[in-house]
UniProtKB/TrEMBL annotation:
Keyword set, alphabetical order: Disulfide bond, Membrane, Metal-binding, Sodium, Transmembrane, Transmembrane helix, Transport
Binding-site residues, Na(+) 2: G44
Annotated source species: Albula glossodonta
Stated name of the protein: Transporter
Membrane topology field: Multi-pass membrane protein
Length: 602
């Protein structure tokens, strides 16, 4: 098979069957009912808990406004190009991540498997956030809120009540953080030995298991019918938390001390800037947009072939950046008011909340008049932000399994059964995350499973495969065939140079200072290394598949991919041809392609 081979006949008219197959998605899952569904789904993936909850904290420790500038720069040169690349691959191929990379370049089909492992890690972290969120939400109906009083059986001797300024701002103050009480003694009921090593996980927490079951049940009923049902769910699950965020903003800026907090958020602290901050900025952009997980590719595969996803991706990336900064205003307005109320600095307010910043925001809203209402608003907002990620990641996993076993699973009624089986399996896997020793396991998945090394390695490889193996110019031709014009040229050079260089630098910097010996034992580091290597090892392993089948066509794309200009060079730099296009036109049987008759008026 020649590179760039096409299913387009010599007369330039594509076979109707091929185009229809891609438009509806070759994965058999159908397509979006409208553009709004696709845009809302992308918004749900790019505006999750990372963007809303973690950005304020990362900005706080990394230089404030100086970090925001770096974040916006990397958003333009790394976030937007990769967000668009992963999405448009799905739209072009019409299939999910596993089949898409197999069609683009059989040699690197392991990328599709690797991103599914990353999705599984992400799901395990997402679902534990949701279980905790439900647990807090159910307790938010109690009056007073359980975490603003020392009168509970699970409080420690270090807990004491303290009134601040006036009765309306009375909340809990402790020698040790009082939210450690509810996390350690009420939610997880962990012991000192649970935090020393990976070891035994302890007993299951019954209340958290029930919350976990509710989350997975909701996930099943949101994904069991595929994109047709998922497209309806996102109308509420994406729009509702953004409305709650807006509500929190108006409440936050009306509080005394709010603008001091916002100024602290945007004020540039150059002294904090070092190489690690640059690394955090580029990595945070990639985490925000959920790259290297294949979900964007799956969402793009539900589009019509001629959909202008370029415009959609640009608009949504800009919107996501705005929402991330806006969420910083919301959270720091609350923290500024909390600092004013406690007569402390924001630095002191932020102490002890490095790992779970959302509990700090819960503390801030719990100090407001009408604490129950505002606590529910915050918890509901965070719940739906994470739930959007969960259901779309689950849909991507299901699509990947269907594509690996198409003959058995692409039948009527099989999807519902498959989703049920996968939800049950994921529920059983996630039980480990609601044990007494789950916090250590949570840190393992966060630090090793979703490590910077794995994330940036996969992202860099995706850019290299598209830019240097498949051919950036050929990919531009494909995009032009879909949307009617060529994207801005800077994207090509980001795929060819900027992103691979950034990713390589981050991988080496993260490996140089990766294993925090004071935090993890030898056993922890061994298990963590396995978690980190699992997705990356898939790529060289699956290189052997095309080697055994046909080593001459290892980098040849699938023949059913539409090529508008197969004879043009696949890659040119400085007017020099780096990768040539198709050298000869495949012979077509005479009966399939009869000579075209001359017609007038054409």
């Amino acid at each position: 098979m020649d590179p760039g081979s096409s299913d387009t006949p010599p007369n330039g008219v594509e076979k109707t069957e091929a185009l229809r197959g891609r438009a509806n998605g070759n994965n058999g899952e159908g397509k979006w009912a409208g553009k709004a569904e696709f845009r809302l789904a992308l918004a749900g993936m790019s505006m999750g808990m990372t963007a809303v909850c973690h950005l304020p904290y990362v900005c706080y420790i990394s230089g404030g406004g100086a970090f925001l500038v770096l974040y916006l720069v990397f958003l333009c040169f790394c976030g937007i190009p990769m967000f668009f690349l992963e999405t448009v691959i799905g739209q072009y191929t019409g299939v999910g991540a596993v089949a898409a990379w197999r069609k683009i370049c059989p040699m690197f089909q392991g990328i599709g498997i690797a991103v599914q492992i990353m999705v599984l890690y992400h799901n395990l972290l997402n679902v534990v956030f949701l279980a905790w969120g439900l647990f807090y939400l159910f307790n938010a109906f109690k009056n007073p809120l359980p975490w603003v009083s020392c009168d509970n059986a699970w409080n420690t001797a270090n807990c004491r009540n303290h009134s601040v300024l006036n009765g309306d701002w009375s909340f809990l103050y402790n020698i040790t953080p009082y939210y450690d009480d509810i996390e350690s003694n009420r939610v997880l009921q962990r012991t000192d030995t649970d935090m020393k090593s990976f070891g035994p996980l302890g007993n299951l927490r019954g209340e958290l298991v029930a919350c976990l079951l509710l989350v997975w049940a909701a996930c099943y009923f949101c994904t069991w019918k595929g994109v047709r049902w998922l497209g309806k769910v996102v109308y509420f699950s994406v729009a509702f938390p953004l409305l709650l965020l807006l509500l929190l903003f108006f409440r936050g800026v009306s509080l005394p001390g709010a603008w001091e907090g916002i100024w602290y958020f945007i004020y540039p602290r150059i002294s904090h800037m070092d190489s690690q901050v640059w690394v955090q900025a580029v990595v945070f952009v990639c985490y925000t947009f959920n790259m290297s997980q294949g979900v964007l590719t799956t969402l793009g595969s539900y589009n019509d072939y001629k959909n202008n996803c370029y415009k959609d991706c640009l608009a949504l990336c800009i919107l996501s950046g705005v929402v991330s900064v806006f969420s910083g205003f919301v959270m720091f307005s609350l923290l500024g008011s909390l600092a004013r109320a406690t007569d402390t600095s924001i630095d002191e307010v932020y102490q002890h909340y490095e790992m779970m910043p959302f509990t700090l925001y819960l503390k801030a809203v719990s100090a407001l008049p009408g604490a129950q209402f505002w606590a529910m608003v915050l918890l509901l907002m965070l719940f739906f932000l994470v739930f959007n990620n969960l259901i779309m990641c689950m849909d991507s996993l299901v699509t990947a399994v269907v594509e690996m076993l198409p003959c058995k699973l692409k039948r009527i009624g099989r999807r519902e059964v498959l989703v049920l089986v996968m939800v049950v399996i994921c529920f059983l896997l996630s039980l480990q995350m609601v044990t007494q020793g789950a916090m250590k396991l949570f840190q393992m998945y966060e630090n090793y499973g979703l490590s910077w090394t794995s994330l940036m390695f996969i992202i860099g490889l995706e850019a290299v495969v598209i830019g240097w193996v498949y051919g950036a110019d050929r990919f531009y031709d494909n995009i032009e065939d879909m949307i009617g014009y060529r994207p801005f040229p800077i994207l090509k050079y980001c795929w060819l140079f900027v992103i691979p260089i950034f990713c390589t630098a981050v991988v080496f910097l993260s490996l140089a200072s990766y294993f925090p010996t004071e935090k993890f034992s030898s056993l922890d580091r061994f298990v963590g290394s396995l978690l980190m290597l699992a997705p990356m090892i898939c790529i060289p392993v699956f290189i052997l598949v095309p080697v055994c089948k046909d080593e001459n066509n290892m980098t040849t794309s699938a023949c059913d991919l539409r090529q508008a200009s197969p004879h043009k060079p696949r890659l040119t730099l400085c007017k020099r041809v780096i990768l040539r296009g198709q050298t000869s036109t495949p012979k077509q049987p005479e009966e399939e392609n009869p000579p075209m008759e001359s017609t007038s008026g054409v």
